Amino acid sequence: MPFEQLLVEGLAMGACYGLFGLAVVIIYKTSEVINFGAGEMAMFSTFIVFHLLTFYNCPFWLALLSAIIFAAVLGVLVQYIFLRPAKNPTLLSLIVITLGVEMLLMGFASWKWGAEQQEFSLPISYMITYEPIEGFIISQWALAVFIIAAIVVAFLYFFFNHTNLGTAMRATQQNKHAAKIMGINTDRVFAFSWAFSSVIGLIAAVLLTAKTILDPQFMLEPFLKAFAAAVLGGLMSIPGVLIGGAIMGLLENFFGYAWPVWKPITAFLVIVLMLCVRPSGLFAKHWVKKV
Amino acid sequence: MDAKRGMGVMLFCFLAVLLLAWPVQAATERGFDDKEIRIAAWGPQTGPAAPWGAVARGSKLMFDIVNEEGGIHGRKVKFFVRDDQYNPSQTVAAVKELTERHGIFAFVGGVGTACCQSVYQILLDNKIIWISPCSGARSFWDPHNPYLWNIWVTYEDDSSILTKFAVEKKKFKKIAMLYQNDDYGLDALDSVKYRLSKYKMELLTALPVEPTERDLSSQVAKLKASGAEAVIGYCSPTQAAIALRTSVSTGFRPQWFHSYNLSDYPLMNKITDGLWSKEGVITSGFFVPPDADHPLIKKYRAAQEKMAPTERWGIFYQAGLVVAEPLVEAMKRAGRNLSTAAVKKELDSLTDFQGVGPKITWTATNHKAPKSVQIWQAGPNGELIVLQDWTVNEISRH
Q: Which sequence spans correspond to the domains of chain A?
C-alpha cells in the first residue's frame, strides 16, 4: 500500500473538506441553519474568478480579491433576500430556502457560463512536486492547501475568541433573544456570518478547482464530503470540523484503496453512523435544552 | 321527425369534421408535405450534460446546408430541436409533443442512453425512422428494430480494439483499467478482459469510478501500486481529466487509453492544462478526424463558419452531422415519392456508405453499428495523430 501517497493526498483533500465544512459550520453556529446552498455559492464565486481571469485578463490575485468581495456580498444578499423575509420560519423551511438558492445559482451559472468544463489555472500547480523523503511525494497544490488551511484556522481562532464580533456571533448562536437584550444587532450578525461563510467557501472551492475541474456541478460532491466532515467533527466546533475533514479525507482514501467499489458511500456511512452514535459529533459539546 | 332531422344534422357535422380533419391528420402522420419534411432531434441544451447538446445543433447545420442547396427533391427540411436537459421524462414529453403536434418524419441522434431508451417504444409504435441513438448500448439493436438504425460503435467493440492496439502495437504487458461504474464502463471492462484472455493476460487491477466523484486519489494510488504501464479508462471527460491530473501530481505516468467519447482533444487539453497532449493520451475515434483534409470536413466547416459562427467545431458537433448524413442520402435516393417505406428501403440497402463518420452497411435485418474504429493520439502540439486506420473488432461477440 502506498501509505505516504494516501496520507498526503488524503490530508490535502481533507483540509479542503474541513475548510469547506467551516463555511457550513459558521452559519450553523449563528443560526442553526444547514446551508445546502453553500456549495453553489462557492461555485458561483469561483466562476467570478474564472470570468475575471478569462474575459478581463485580470491578474490572479486581483481576480481573487474581487471574488472575495463578491462572495461576501452574495452571502449577505442571500441572507437578506431569501432568508430574512421568511415569516415565522421553521428550521425546515429555512433549509428548503437554501435548497432553492442552490438550484437558482446552479441554473444561473449554467446559463451564464455553460455546463461545459472550463479551463481554470492557479498560480499553485499540482504538476510541480517535491520529494523530501523517498516515496513521499507532495505537490505544490497540497502544500498550499495545508498552509492556507492553517492560516484560515488561526484567523478564525483569533476572530471568535478575541474580537467583539466573534463574541457577538457566539452569543447570538447560544441565545438570540438574550443577545438582542445585550444590545447585539443580531440581524447584522446573521448577515455577517453569511458573508464570512461565503468567503471561506470560496477559498475552499478555489483550492478544490485547482485539483479537479471547474463546471457548475463541481461542488456537489465536495459539499457532501464537507457536510460529513462537519457532522463527524461536530456542527458547533470549528477545530472539530477541521479534524473531521482530515479524518474524512484519510478515511475516504484508505477505505477507497482497500475497497474501491464502496468508496462512494464512505461519506454517507460517516453521516449515518455519527448521527446514530453521537449526533453532536466528536468534538462538539452536546447542548440539552432544559424546560 | 325533428329528432331524425337533429340526428341527421349531427351526423352531417360529424362527417364534415372528420373529412376536414382527415387530410391534415394524414399529412401529420407522414411528417411531410409537398413543401417540407419535418425532422427532429432532442438533446441537452441546458443542464449538466449541455456540452453534448452540440450533437443536435450539428444536425441542424446539415439540414441548413441541405436547404441552402435547394432541399430534397423540392422539399425543404424543417428541423426541430428540443431541450430535454438530459432528463428522460423531458425526452418523453418532447418526443410526444413533436410527434403528436407537428408530425415528424424522422428523428436523428439523441443523447443519453436512458433518454433514448425512454422514447424507444414511442418511436417504434409510431414507425418513425430514427438514426441513431448516440449510445453504444446493446438494447438499441438487440432485438432488431426495423425503424432504428445504429451508428454508434459499441463500447464492447471499441474497448476490444483499443486493448488489441495496446498489446500488439504498443507491447504493453501490464495493463490496468479505470471504468465508470455503469453499463458504459462495465461493458468495456468485460470486453477488455475477453480480449486479454486471448493473449492469456489479465488486468492488473480494475477500479470503478462514479460519474460524480471529484477525488480519485485512492484509485490513482492503487493503479500506481499495481505497477501498470498502461491504463485503459472508460469514464467521463471530467473523471478522466481528474485522474490524469492526480496521476501527474503523484509521479505516476502510465500510457493512458480512453474511449472515443473522450476524443474531443481541444476540450480535453483545455481541462487538463494541456496534459492530454503532453502525456500523449491515446483514444479511439470513429469519425473522420475533425481537422482532416477531407472534402466533406472542409465543406461542413465552411458552412459552420458561415451559418453557425458561434459554434465550436468539435467532435460532438460533428456527431450531429454523422447521424444526419445517412438520412439525407436515403431521402435523396428515395426520390420525389417520399414515404417512410421508401426511405426505409433505401436505408436498408446502404452499403459501405461513408460521410464524415464510419463506413455503414445496413440490411433489412441488420441495423447494427459498424464494428470498426481508428486509433488516435493527442500530439505534443495539440494536434490529432492517426496511429492506426479503421480496424474491425474481429472477435466481436455480436
A: 3-217
**Closest approach of B272 to chain A, Cα-based (Å):** 8
Contact B51 A1 (CB under 8 A): no
CATH 1.10.1130.10 fits B155-285+375-392, yes or no: no
Each domain of chain B, given as residue ranges in start order, spans: 31-152+291-367, 155-285+375-392
Q: Which is more confidently placed, A277 or A39?
A: A39
Q: Which residues of A touch B217 (CB under 8 A)?
A: 5-6, 9-10, 13, 253, 256
Contacts of B376 (CB under 8 A, 6+ apart): B263, B282, B283, B284, B285, B289, B384, B385, B386, B387
Please state the ipTM of this predicted complex.
0.84
Q: Whole-angstrom distance between the N-terminal and C-terminal Cα of chain B?
A: 71
DSSP annotation of A257 reads: H
In terms of phi and psi (left: phi > 0; alpha: psi -120 to 50; beta: otherwise), the region of A76 is: alpha
Residues in chain A with CB shorter than 8 Å from the CB of B213 are 221, 263-264
Does the domain spanning B31-152+291-367 belong to CATH 3.40.50.2300? yes
Low-confidence ranges of chain B (pLDDT < 70): 1-29, 47-49
Instruction: Please tell me which residue, A150 or B24, carries the higher pLDDT value.
Output: A150
A103 touches chain B (CB under 8 A): no
Which amino acid is it at A96? Answer: V
Q: pLDDT digits over A47-70, tens only? A: 999 999 999 999 999 999 999 999
Question: Would you call A123 an interface residue with chain B, using a CB distance cutoff of 8 Å?
Answer: no
| CATH fold match for the domains B31-152+291-367 and B155-285+375-392 | yes
**Amino acid identity at B334:** A
What letter would DSSP give residue B248?
H
Over residues A219-239, mean pLDDT: 88
